[in-house]
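New here. Your pick:
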Amino acid sequence: MQLSQLRNFMAVIEHGAISKAAEKLDVAQPALSQSISRMEKRLGVVLFERSRRGALPTVAARAIVDDVRHGLSKLEEAGRKARATQAGRAGTLKIGLVSSALFEVLPDALKKIKQLAPDLALEFMEMGNDDQTEALKQGIIHVGLIHSPIAISGRMHQKILRQDRLIAAVPSRLAKSSGGRITLQEMAECGLVLYPKEQFPHMYFGIAEAIRKLGCEFKINQHANRTMTVLACVAGDLGIGMLPSWIRSMGFPGVGFCQIDNGDNLPSFELLAVAAPQYKAMLDYF
């Protein structure tokens, strides 16, 4: 049975006449009469008794009114839900994120989602760049909050969320004695604690080039693949870390932060929101 037939049936029920229902629906009266006739034929019953007074519902018609009304309501609700899901206002949004997205970016997005899409359910998966690129390809996550540059096969949409300069994470004693400033030469002399080059090759080689241009040795004391591990190594006096400037908002015992005086040639740390075409609308929340 067609949806239009059910709507036509309810219109005749509500207006009590084919002519009035046709006017309300903005359809021709013969077309509405044919629709009701087809519905009667399909059900094998007479739904309306036609007279000069209008169209009176039969016992059979009155028996199905509540069911038809409820069915139309559920269909309209399903339609609203489908449209809201397509627009990114309902359903479930699965978000992959690197740790730096936890500061400012994700909290701001959550406030926006709560305001604009209160029915949208959220799932979070904290993971690194490589894991996120694979999860995006497989559809395990819908949006990735990820560091650039990235390489993902297939068409993806990207949005730059934040660009951070690199700052030095140094042992607290050094931060106090240096007055909050340090040079690349001083950092090179102490030795560095960095993310592995496989994790962020663009940043790794950019730092190496900037230091070597100054005639200094690019010396790595320790590799650490997580920000908190870098900070722990710095606090343990294993070397000096280079981290994005958002790290200033996070305290860590034994660690202070310094501006790099001659760090203009250092690469920036870029955070992106990445989504497949079908989830492009979700990027508006970030």
